[in-house]
Design brief:
The protein is α/β, with parallel strands linked by helices. The chain has nine helices and five strands, in the order H-H-H-H-E-H-E-H-E-H-E-H-E-H. It has a five-stranded parallel beta sheet, with helices on both faces. The N and C termini lie far apart (46 Å). Bound molecules: cobalamin.
């Protein structure tokens, strides 16, 4: 796909134009562009620009909301395409996913869930603004292998630690691997809060999840 198509995708996010974003996504599918390329090379860079402009006072909350709407429109087209890749694979592991308490950012988390599903994981998305106890209860109910916690705000990152603590309190910590992510999250932070891993994007989250499942199987066998 020519670079100007990717830049049109990026611009549709900056402009907060859901119809344009959706039709560019459909064009990508029609031209057999891998959906992950459309997301990573086209639409996500637009979200990053929006974040930068917001940070510099050049964009405001309603603009950011319009951009999120455009991103959702693109994902509505690309998500089913990504998931198709995973439908015939055996189940790689059970993942409980959510955005931490106090935080309503969901786009990155949804993308992580989609990529995990596309690679054979069974994913249960608890949504946004999820308390640690809820993660723990779902992990128990489903006998989850991995709990994934997203946080996009420096203020809500600390609630990722609350998820680790809730799992400890429930006596589940040795059975469940905790992975954390989100724009302000780092590997160092993951270590500090006692999580088992950090991934910077959705593809790395898949690699990490496979590695953790391997480790788990080695311990069991
Ligand atoms: C879109 C957006 C919104 C939308 C969210 C809509 C939605 N439905 O999700 C709306 C408009 C609602 C919003 C609200 C707010 N936002 Co906002 N938002 C953004 C923005 C522009 C993009 C986020 C995004 O979707 N990125 C695209 C996705 C694909 O990337 P991602 O989320 O980083 O996810 C990837 C990785 O991080 C990783 N990942 C993510 N989760 C997980 C989980 C696991 C387990 C793993 C392994 C990996 C992983 O993989 C993902 C895919 O590759 C960011 C800017 C930025 N650069 O992040 C600001 C940003 C996060 N927001 C910010 C702020 C300040 C706010 C508000 C407080 C604004 C306000 N004054 O009200 C509110 C907070 C509301 C709340 N309580 O949560 C700040 C945060 C600053 C800070 N340091 O804390 C940012 C950084 C903007 C800025 N530069 O100032 N926001």
């Amino acid at each position: 796909m020519p670079d100007d198509h990717f830049s049109a995708m990026r611009q549709s996010i900056i402009d907060g134009a859901p119809d344009t974003a959706s039709s560019l996504a459909r064009e990508a599918v029609a031209s057999s562009i891998p959906p992950i390329d459309a997301i990573n090379k086209g639409f996500v860079p637009g979200m990053h620009d929006v974040g930068e402009q917001f940070a510099h006072g050049q964009m405001f909350l309603p603009d950011m909301m319009a951009s999120a709407e455009a991103m959702r429109a693109a994902m509505a087209v690309l998500d089913p395409e990504l998931k198709k890749l995973g439908t015939e694979r055996p189940r790689a592991g059970i993942v409980v996913l959510g955005t931490t308490k106090g935080d309503i950012h969901e786009i990155g988390k949804i993308l992580v869930g989609t990529m995990l599903t596309a690679h054979g994981f069974q994913v249960h998305d608890l949504g946004v603004d999820v308390a640690g106890e809820k993660f723990a209860a779902k992990a128990r109910e489903l006998k989850a292998d991995i709990v994934g916690v997203s946080a996009l705000l420096t203020t809500t990152m600390r609630n990722q630690k609350g998820v680790v603590e809730a799992l400890e309190k429930e006596g589940l910590r040795s059975q469940v691997r905790v992975v954390v992510g989100g724009a302000p999250v780092t590997r160092r932070w993951a270590e500090e809060i006692g999580a088992d891993g950090y991934a910077k994007d959705a593809m790395s989250a898949v690699t990490l999840a496979h590695e953790l499942m391997q480790q788990k199987l080695q311990i069991v066998s």
